[in-house]
Amino acid sequence: MDRNRIIKLYKLLDYTTEIEGDRNFYCLYNGRWAKFNQNYVDKIKNEIIEINKRIEYEPKYDLDLKENEETIQKDYKDMLTYLNSPDLTLNEDTREKLYREFVYNYNLSKKINGTLLDRKQFNGIEICDIYANNELIHTKIGAPGEFNECINQSIIGMETWNTNKEEIKNKLNIKNVDTVTLLLITQNQKVLKTRDVNEFSSLRFKLNLIEWYSKVDLIGKKSRVIIAKLK
Q1: Secondary structure of residue 19 in the 3-state scheme
Q2: What distance in Å separates the CA atoms of residue 144 and residue 92, rounded to the nearest whole number?
Q3: Is the dihedral of CA 4, 7, 101, 220 positive or negative?
Q4: Could you give the strand order of the β-sheet that contains 32-37, starting from the edge strand earlier in sequence?
Q5: Residue 20, Ramachandran bin (φ over 0: left; ψ between -120 and 50: alpha; else beta)
Q6: CB 127 within 8 A of CB 115
Q7: For the segment 1-28, what is each residue's pLDDT rounded down to a tens digit?
Q8: Which residue has the higher pLDDT, 128 or 21?
Q9: Cβ count within 10 A of residue 158
Q10: SS3 (DSSP) at 57
C-alpha cells in the first residue's frame, strides 16, 4: 500500500441491505445509515437502465496483472524518476510506490498517447490521472467502495479545472477539455457478463454515478464511463 494515499475507511465501506418484512433498503453512506423505500430504489434502477446504454465495455482497457509486472521490471527507473524517488533501484520499499493502479496508468498513458498526471496536483487536488485527446480520465481498480472515491475525485478535479483553467494549463499543460471520463476496472463477473451496472449491489455507487453525469452535463462537457476487466 502507498502510505501517501491512505483513505479514511468509512469512505471505502459500501454496504446495502434489506430487513426481512421491511420494504426499505438501508445503505451505509459516509459512515451513517440512510434509508430508502422501494419506490425510490426502483427509480434509481430505472435511471441506471438508461445510463447502461451510454457505458462502454472495452477490452483494450482491461488490466492484465502480468503486463503490469512486466512493465515494472522494464520501466521501474522511469516510473520512480517520475515519482521523484531518491532510490531508483527496485526493492521492497520502491515497489510500494509502484502500486498496480499507478503502473496501469503509466502503461495506458503511453498506449493512448496521453499525459500521465497521476499524483500530480494543482493546489492539493489531482485534476485527473491521465489527460489525452482533450479528455480528463480518472481510473480506479476495485469495487463500488473504491469507485465512489474515483467519482468524488473526478467531480472535484473537473470543477477545479473549470474555475482555474489558465493556471492549470500553465502548471499541468491541460489545454482544452471536451470530455470527462471514469475508467472503472472490476472483477465483478455479473456486471461484465450482463453489461448492467444494476448488478452492483451498492445504492450509494448508483446514486453517485447519477450525480456525476449531472455535474458533467452542468459544466457543458461530454461524459464517458468505461468499464474494464481486472484479469
Answers
A1: coil
A2: 29
A3: negative
A4: 15-18, 24-29, 32-37
A5: beta
A6: no
A7: 343 443 443 344 455 555 555 666 666 6
A8: 128
A9: 22
A10: strand
- How would you classify the pairing of strands 222-229 and 135-141? unpaired
Task: Please state, in angstroms and rounded to a whole number, the distance separating the CA atoms of residues 186 and 191.
Answer: 9
CB within 8 Å of 12: residues ≥ 6 apart: 145, 146, 148, 149
φ, ψ for residue 194, nearest 5 deg: -90, -15
Q: Are 179 and 56 in contact (CB under 8 A)?
A: no
Q: Provide CB contacts within 8 A for 116, sequence distance 6+.
A: 82, 105, 106, 109, 129, 130
- Residue 144 has which C-alpha cell? 463500488
Report yes or no: 177 and 127 within 8 Å, Cβ to Cβ. Answer: no
CA-wise closest residue to 178 among 219, 123, 126: 219
